[in-house]
Amino acid sequence: MRNILIQSPASRLCRPRISFSSRWRHVGVTIGVTLGVTIGVTFFSACSPKISETTDSGSIVFSESLSGVWEAKVGEPEAVDYLTVSKPIPKKQAITDMPTNGFPEFAQDIEYTVKNGKTYLRIPLDREEKIYGLGMHFRSVQQRGKIKRLHMDHVGGQEDGRTHAPVPFYVSSKGYGMLINAARYIDVWVGTAVRKDSDNPPVVRDRNTDRNWSAAPYSDAIEILIPADGVELILFSGPEMMDAIKRYNLFCGGGPMPPKWGMGFWHRVPTLYSDMQVQAEVLQFEEHGFPLDVIGLEPGWQSASYPCTYEWDQSRWPNPEKSMKELDEQGVKINLWINPYIPPGSNIHNKLADYTGSHTVWAGEVPDYTLPDARGLLQEHFKSNHLDIGVSGYKIDEVDGYDAWLWPDVASFPSGLDGEQMRQIYALQMMAMINESFEERDQRTWGLVRGNTAGGNRFPFVLYSDHYSHQNFITALVNSGFNGVLWTPEVRNSPTGEEWVRRMQTSCFSPMATINAWASGTKPWSFPEVYEEVKAAALLRLQLFPYFYSAFADYHFEGIPPFRAVQLEKGFLDISEEEKGTLDGEKNPYALARQREIKDQYMAGPNLLVAPLYAGETSRKVVLPPGKWFDFYTGEFVGENEVIIAEHGIDKLPVYVRDGGMIPMIPETLHTPSDGEQVPLTFRIYGTAPGEFLLYDDDGTSYAYASGRYNRVKVSIEYSESGEAISKIDAVNPAYPWAYQEMKFEFMTLD
Ligand code: GAL
User: Per-residue confidence at 353, pLDDT binned at 50, 70, 90?
Assistant: First the structure.
């Protein structure tokens, strides 16, 4: 199905020049569809020595590989890309069960050129079209009008595509998604550039006299440059943006299913903490009645770090096996911090020395884990030193890079990959390798990583950053759902108690509720003046365990991101014909508000809208998604199709529930339920509309769910004509785990 250039005799004499004229586009599509080849070249009438060589160009021919998923190969894609590294197994049945609106017509007009070792793409845009995704941005959500170089990096403050998750996937408000599957620094002009032969050019204006002159004139295309001889493209259909995202996630294997303990509270201790200090800290959590499921050990658990030995430090951790056992008996799992670089002379280096790249990082060598033998050696080391004694997972640090200390792009690796490719895939490769080790022992893991990209969707790792702005953290959370990644707004320290509690509240409504006290030594009770509020937020997180766990099941089985933008809510971006072009803050404020950039509120699970308050704020605007919404805490109606003002003291994070929203909760607890534990469950019911909820349960620790050993049960509420509530619960399979024998309903809005 590869596109090939049909050479005319003239091309041997003269160099062909690419043309994006609609005439040639038309020819390309017609012939491409019937013969499986495309033509898209025109020729100069006379030879010119200045013309550069064109290898291949034309319109792209896609072929449907799964319902609503089309793939195309342009030129000669490289052997290593994001999907060859992550090796996802698409959830075919779930994709087939989804609605599709067929092949998007505009995609026939996508054009490509492969020239001088680079691939150029031009993807048409409609005037009203909005673009989301293209990685984890910390300051913006809508990407049309932006220029990005998708480059794996830490985040400092830049908004140029260098980020912890430079995912080359985007969704369009027109209802499609596109994956550009190349492990390269990809440049994307998201509706910023204008070709002189554009079908839809901007108006020429005189800046001297025309107030509407713009420095950024209208552009009708996304243009993309991949520094490689070809690329694989994968197109995902709607009808809605959410459908395209679901397809993308399912194509990449579905979201990860956390172990139950992953949904509890996490605390990372100061870097040089010993076994005794960790024990004392765990006791303090118990004494304070503060939830705790996981303790994270930072670099000092190792005999040396930066580069890392992956060996326990004998003075701080003389008997790690005994320590793991004791902590496990207290209901606490251990997560280990690592980075990939290994010091010459260490045991791990002795094993891996033949498999490292040309450059070092902090004088440590950089293993090439694309080589199966190298992977095997590290996996064996981790197994015997960590997994076999009870370590539950890892925090994979420094895989995003920082130019000053990382290998440069000129680096080379034994597999033949270059520095650029390795930088783009390192995080993916580390996650794949560690995930495989846990899968092999049928043990779920949950951890952290500082880099992720396309294909990493199914790996059980949550992104974090050294960048530390509460506002930016929420924008990153909003963006994570467009990109198939998870993000934690972890809490480290705060200048005031007010900021501490505001940060803790949002962390408790995220994929990982966590304090990272590696440098600060903070504890949940570090700000006594707000301790009760902080504790309430953490206890609420645990009470919401069945809700969040079920939301992750929706991610795994249906590809629905558990944390995501409000723009993905049905009808959110819709405006009526009359409203188009006439949006006005006086006449149609709600429509106008929905079209604007919204980056400070998000959906959590199927029914909750979260609108964080930041330090210094006592109220804020909340743009409600269409329909009626109710206050989470009181059940009171708060608004319908409007922008509301949220006011909450520091005791509460503004959270709203949709009409008919059902929220399953368990009693206050300090640990998530263990395998086989029975817990009573209360469904809070909001509003007056009928509702339904898919409540999920499994053993919480193994991969048995992957072979169908789980319950995903529909619970619904309807109302009779006289207003009487009727609840229905689908049959639970008693052969599979089910923790909720007792179930009650609490009507929050209705008496
Ligand atoms: C940083 C990381 C922090 C902490 C620290 C330990 O790179 O982002 O979360 O783990 O290393 O040295």
Answer: very high
Q: Is the pLDDT of residue 46 over 60?
A: no
CA angle 179, 408, 76 (to 5 degrees): 40
**Where do you find CATH 2.60.40.1180 in the chain?**
544-751
260-543: CATH, from 3.30.1330.10, 3.40.718.10, 1.10.1520.10, 3.20.20.80:
3.20.20.80
Residue nearest to atom 4 of ligand 1 (CA): 518
Q: What is the C-alpha to C-alpha distance for residues 634 and 636, in angstroms, rounded to an integer?
A: 5
Which atom of ligand 1 has the smallest separation from the CA of 306? 12
Q: What pLDDT is attached to residue 580?
A: 79
Ligand 1: which of 266, 295, 306, 397 to mutate, judged by most atoms within 8 Å of the beta carbon? 397
Q: How many CB atoms lie within 10 A of CB 48?
A: 9
Which of 250, 255, 261, 280 has its CA nearest to residue 90?
A: 250
> Taking 60 as the threshold, does the pLDDT of residue 7 lie above it?
no
750 pLDDT band, cuts 50/70/90, is confident
**Number of Cβ within a 10 Å radius of residue 211:** 6
* Cα(450) to centroid(ligand 1), Å: 9
Q: Give distance in angstroms: CA of 292 to centre of ligand 1.
A: 21
pLDDT at residue 586 tops 90: no
How remote is the CA of residue 402 from the centroid of ligand 1, in Å? 13
Q: How far is CA 684 from CA 523, 557, 661, 716, 747, in A?
A: 31, 24, 8, 12, 6
Residue 20 pLDDT > 70, yes or no?
no
CA of 26 to the centre of ligand 1 (A): 54
Ligand 1 geometric centre to CA of 562 (Å): 26
| Structure confidence at residue 54 (pLDDT) | 63
Select from 338, 512, 518, 522 the residue to mutate for testing ligand 1; criterion: most ligand atoms less than 8 Å from CB.
Answer: 518
* DSSP string for 88-140: ----HHHHHTS----S-GGGGG-EEEEETTEEEEEEE--TT--EEESS--SS-
What residues flank ligand 1, with Cβ below 6 Å?
A: 271, 298-299, 337, 397-398, 466, 516, 518
pLDDT at 53: 58
Strand order, beta sheet including 118-124: 56-59, 111-115, 118-124, 221-226, 186-190, 147-152, 162-163
Mutational test site, ligand 1, from 466, 491, 492, max ligand atoms within 8 Å of CB: 466
**What residue ranges of the chain are covered by domains with CATH 3.20.20.80?**
260-543
Neighbours of 667 (CB within 10 A): 11
Domain spanning 3-251 has what CATH number? 2.60.40.1760
Ligand 1 atom at minimum distance from 492 CA: 9
- CATH number given to 544-751: 2.60.40.1180
Kindly indicate the confidence band of residue 43, based on its pLDDT and cuts at 50, 70 and 90.
very low
> Is residue 34 very low, low, confident or very high in pLDDT (cuts 50, 70, 90)?
very low
Give residue 136's pLDDT. Answer: 96
pTM above 0.90, yes or no: yes
Q: Report the separation in Å between the CA atom of 742 and the middle of ligand 1, taken as the mean of its atom positions.
A: 43
- Enumerate the CATH 2.60.40.1760 domain ranges in the chain, comma separated: 3-251
> What's the whole-number mean pLDDT along residues 350-366?
98
CA of 645 to the centre of ligand 1 (A): 37
How far does the centroid of ligand 1 lie from the alpha carbon of residue 397, in Å?
A: 7
Q: How far is the CA of 268 from the centre of ligand 1 (A)?
A: 10
The predicted pLDDT at position 704 comes to: 98
Condensed to tens digits (0 to 9), the pLDDT of residues 419-433 reads 999 999 999 999 999
Span 692-712, average pLDDT: 98
Ligand 1, atom 3, lies closest to the CA of 466
